[in-house]
Amino acid sequence: MAAEELSIDVHELTKKFGSFTAVDRVSFDVRRGEIFGFLGPNGAGKSTTIRMLCGIIRPSSGRATVGGFDVAERPEDVKRIIGYMSQKFTLYGDLTVGENIDFYGGIHRLPSVSKKERKEWILKMAGLEGREGSLTRELSGGWKQRLALGCAILHRPRIVFLDEPTASVDPASRRDFWNLIYDLSEQGTTAFVTSHYLDEVERCHRIAIIYQGKIIAVGTPRELKVRLAGRASAGLEEVFLAAIREAQAT
Amino acid sequence: MIQRILPIARKEAIQIRRDPRSLFLAIGLPIILIILFGFAITYDIRHVPIGVIDLDRSSLSRDLISRISASEYFYLRFNSREYAGVEKTLKEGRVTIIIVVPRDFSRNAARGAGPTLQLLVDGMNNNSALIAMGYLNQLVEKFSTDMLAGTFARLGVSFAGGMPGAELRTRIWYNPELTSSNFIVPGLIAVIMMIMSATLTSLTVSREWETGTMEQMIAGPVRAHEVVIGKLIPYFGLGLAQVVLIVIVSRVIFHVPFRGNLLCLFTVSSIFLLCGLGIGVFISIIARSQQLSYTVATLTTILPSYLLSGFISPISSMPRLIRLVTYVVPARYFLTTLRGIYLKGYGFGQVWPQIISLTVFFAVIFTACVKAFRVRLD
């Protein structure tokens, strides 16, 4: 595969916090336009990996490039071409919907013409038309999360990193949310999504299972089912447990 | 780079506007503090409670005592004939000074033997005791000169041009009535502005670390100086509004004369404000938690601005080591400048050294902020 087709390329990426190894020599790659699921229990190293790839924490060792830029050496270039939605809701609660959008538009230096157009698009996408003047903290979960996604993709990033994006939203909002991710993917945007919901990552093109800082399996949901559980009809839970068993055996 | 500073500044300004507490903290509190402390702190000693033990009971001693009690500086609590039971009034703090007129006071005066008076002084508050003693000294001196003149007159000698001997003719400049509020209020402005500006910004960065909004911001392509400048701008505006109000209060409520250059005042205040705001931002960056940064900001500004700026006692009378420490206290420069501008009519021609010192301080603290601010989480 040609290098330019790779959105994310990770080799032996490691992050240590003192004597604790949060991420232990993980390697994987993500192709352009792919929806890549990062599955693992809480504390497995998902958020740490995502933060390294976003250039907001420094890897202890190993290499990773995002959109062709080395995350340790050129974090500023990485930050220009990615969108990031952290696990916590991190828009400003005391700003209105419109002000939050304006702020992130300003940070990414969108020209005022496209700022206006993108703002309208986000309000429509998030179902927040007419609520531009509402304080963000007064929105309910699903709206907040769609607005957060909107602010993360406002500047049309080539790659979006979504850390547990649907952790606190209802099933209907979750479905809408995934439809959006598919739309983005079809337009060529790469999506890197972490989750600890098994049914959710089933929607991804490919999955990596991370457990105690190590990647223990990578492949399409179907491949993993066949390889680890022995049948394509297996539930991902079964796959996940089989992967853990296999990892512990070696 | 300016393109990213403005959205940060705008966002910060909206947040300040929506937060009535920080608005009150910025505008209301300084005014309340100035008024409160401006009235509370005074070096003007008036109505010092004194007691007299008059063992002489002569017309001479009565003349002396009536002069003392007629003075606005003293308030005569008692006039006793004997020592008994009097000592405890000093201990209880009912009087600050006791004047003992000895039994042979008038006899010695008549003999020309140089009569003496005894003073018992409560030295607990050394400052007010010293000042009260000074006033008393003047009174007694005047009294003895008059007494002497009377004696000479009885002997047929008159001094039409006054008594022979050296005499001090004092003229006090800049604050002729020695009104202490004229001296205190400009100092208070420096102390209060320092505390307010540092505490105001001490929360801005740490709050964003706590809520996680900073993580979101630094996942965008922001640079340290953009965040620092963007955060300083709205608070700077707020601080200037504060200065205007304080200047008005000092004029309207305390009648502090303003003799200097207003433009100069605002220039120095602006740089001083930036120093205070910069200290707050720096602490906020380092501390990463609101509680810690607020505590550190108040501790590192209140005491130094109060004690090491020359507000309480003149820097020139501090030990050398402490004097060196005062060079890194921005309030020191601002305080000197403010008093000079207010009372001595200083302009740029006199205060430029302080302007340079404050500018250097700001340059250092700003660089420290930019260096300390990480666009990373670790």
Write structural notes for this entry.
- Chain A is α/β, with parallel strands linked by helices.
- Chain A is built from 9 helices and 10 strands.
- A 6-stranded mixed β-sheet of chain A has the order 6-7-8-3-9-10, with helices on both faces. In chain A, strands 2-1-4-5 form a 4-stranded antiparallel β-sheet, with helices on one face.
- Chain B has 378 residues and is of the alpha/beta class.
- Chain B has 2 domains: 2-42 and 179-377, no CATH class; 48-154, abc type-2 transporter like fold (3-Layer(aba) Sandwich).
- Chain B has 15 helices and 4 strands.
- Chain B has a 4-stranded mixed β-sheet with strand order 2-1-3-4, with helices on one face.
- In chain B, helix 1 (2-18) crosses helix 10 (224-252), helix 7 (180-202) packs antiparallel against helix 10 and helix 7 runs parallel beside helix 11 (262-287).
- The longest helix of chain B is centred in the middle third of the chain and has 29 residues, at 126-154.
- Chains A and B meet through helix 2 and helix 3 of A and helix 1 and helix 9 of B.
Short description:
The complex is a heterodimer of chains A (250) and B (378). With 250 residues, chain A is an alpha/beta fold. Chain A contains nine helices and ten strands.
Number of strands of chain A: 10
Low-confidence stretches of chain A: none
Number of helices of chain A: 9
Main sheet: strands, sense, barrel of chain A = 6 strands, mixed
In N-to-C order, the SSE pattern of chain B is HHEHEHEHEHHHHHHHHHH
